[in-house]
Amino acid sequence: MVSNRYNPGQPGLAELQPYPFERLRTLLADVEPPSDQPSVPLSIGEPKHPVPALIADALHAGVAESLGRYPATAGQPALREAIAAWLGERFRLGDTGVDPERHILPAAGTREALFAVTQALLDPASRPDVLMPNPFYQIYEGAALLAGGRPRMLNTDADSGLPMIEAFSDADWARCGLIYLCSPGNPTGRVIPQGFWERLFRLQDRHGFVIAADECYSELYRDETRAPLGLLQACAADGRDRFEGCLVFHSLSKRSNVPGLRSGFIAGDARLIEAFRAYRTYQGCALPLHVQRASQAAWSDETHVFENREAYREKFRRARSILADVAPYRDPEAGFYIWLPVPGGDDETFTRALYARTGITVLPGRYLSRPTANGDPGAGHVRMALVADTAVCEDAMHRIRQFIEQPK
Predict the structure, then answer these.
(1) Which of 75, 81, 238, 328 has the fewest Cβ atoms within 10 Å of its own Cβ atom?
(2) Single Gene Ontology BP term (predicted)?
(3) Are 305 and 255 a contacting pair, CB within 8 Å?
């Protein structure tokens, strides 16, 4: 007789919802796209621009040495120094500075780090709530559930594009152990301004929660004269020169077109970094030395990043010229997504019909959000990732326009 005493997994696993792309596969499983034109996946944000040669060269050069050595969780000093220099220059931290020994921890991309931070820093017994914007990156929700916490959704305001932190009471904030924010936002591309951060700092001063800022899209901005504000920069402007209770998460995946490198970092409050480092020492996710070498080369160069922005800027310019008059949308300040309100308002129906008629795959907005008492801010939108070559994206925009203008 087989015993049922040993049930695999912790309770949080049973609460996890299917990932957005699993839901999309189910939605489109019985739909046949047209055979006379190529399919175009705009549903997933995987960069398709060329990998910069300087990163590939550094990676290859370091492999032989790397394979015979265990890497340290804290990373090589040279990598941390390159990251510290980049942070100080990019976010104009001036005299505040970032100490590469105390304020920085390399990570295997932002996904790994954003998940692990809640496992390391949340105390579900005393402050179980993990706040997050709605729509959101589903890793935030899964991290909260698997840490024994409770996800709480902050609906994004339709006008400002910002999470409505004023909707929560002091009692709500008192139960908050950590809040995730994404700036520039996924999927909206909205950059959080200084005033918003300062309102959040005042709440943090009263209630003592951790702020985790996902900034993986920070280098894909439209206006070369207005680089997006970052959380550490907002801290410095508010006189919080020790970044108390604040962590930022950055990645090379989008900035440098190397999603397969799995490289990023966490930076901020030295006390939190120390605790997080202890957790990750046991987790065992140190970056291989050749990955660190390639990462150091990437963080030390801005030419390829500027060229990357230029390519995205041109794609967004063309998309607006093709779509804006038939499907108006708000231009994203950064990132590579268009957050498109769909004609008719039903994002799932639009997604199925678009794929059947044109072979173009987009992601229903409701797959990136959760329904709340105040509505579902993702429903009625689709997310489109302009990650393919310019010509491919332009062709896709023309097909979408024709689809909208000539509904069947």
Answers:
(1) 328
(2) lysine biosynthetic process via diaminopimelate
(3) yes
Tokens of 216: 């993986």
Tokens of 169: 């009471």
The model's pTM is 0.95
Q: What is the pLDDT of residue 1?
A: 44
Using the 3D structure, point to which of 258, 276, 301 is the last residue of a domain.
301
Tell me the DSSP string of 58-93.
HHHHHHHHHTTSPPPTT--HHHHHHHHHHHHHHTT-
Residue range 302-322, pLDDT digits in tens: 999 999 999 999 999 999 999
Alpha carbon distance 401, 245 (integer Å): 46
| pLDDT interval class at 407 (50, 70, 90) | low
Residue 41 confidence (pLDDT) above 80: yes
Range of the domain at 295: 54-301
**Structural tokens at position 61:** 């050069």
The enclosing domain of 394 has a CATH number of 3.90.1150.10
pLDDT confidence of residue 387:
97
Q: Is residue 13 part of a domain?
A: no
For the stretch 369-401, what's the b/e string if a residue is b when 16 or more beta carbons lie within 10 angstroms of its beta carbon?
bbeeeeebbbbbbbbbbbbbeeebbbbbbebbb
Residue 100 lies in a domain: yes
Domain boundary among the residues 260, 283, 301 is at 301
- Supply the pLDDT for residue 5: 59
Tokens encoding 166: 């004023």
